[in-house]
Amino acid sequence: MPLSEHEQKLLEQLEKQLHEDDPKFANSMGSDPIRSWSTRHVIIGVLGAIAGILLLLIGVTTQLIALGVLGFVVMGAGVYFATLRGAAFGKAGARNRKPGKSKSSFMSSLEERWDERRRDDT
Q1: I want to staple 78 with a disulfide (CB 3.0 to 4.6 A). Which of 49, 103, 119, 120 is the partner?
Q2: 27: number of Cβ within 10 Å
Q3: In the predicted model, is pLDDT for residue 110 greater than 90?
């Protein structure tokens, strides 16, 4: 069921206010194309993880502990690199934040709107 025009406006206002009050959280929850999965990162990360597994297996079979540990580290680094998202980690959100606003203003405005809605219904 589609939202009414009034509900869409309220949702847009809430999203805008969330971006102003807590940009880091808003960016983590949003679907910004800047923060989407990078195919290049995933491919390089998977290749690194596979290389790490191979090094780990070679280290175990040859009983070289240092090579096994190196393989484990390379494998972990590959997985970490594959799960990286976007190039701008919170940089855009830090610019949009207003220094004078407190985080509680978001919740207080929600409470005010809720109270107004309740008063209008009665």
Answers
A1: 49
A2: 22
A3: no
7 is written with which tokens? 């509900």
Long-range contacts of 64-71 (CB under 8 A, 24+ apart): none
Residue 1 confidence class, pLDDT cut points 50, 70, 90: low
In the chain, what is the straight-line distance between the N-terminal and C-terminal CA atoms, in Å?
Answer: 26
Q: CB neighbours (10 Å) of residue 102?
A: 10
The H or E element containing residue 70 is: helix 65-82
User: How many residues does the structure list for the chain?
Assistant: 122
99 conformational bin, left if phi > 0, alpha if psi -120 to 50, beta if neither: alpha
Residue 79: which of 37, 55, 47 has the closest Cα? 47
User: Do 70 and 55 meet the contact criterion of CB atoms below 8 Å apart?
Assistant: yes
Quote the CA–CA distance of 27 and 96 in Å, as a whole number: 12
Per-residue pLDDT tens over the stretch 65-85: 999 999 999 999 999 998 886
pLDDT at 122: 65
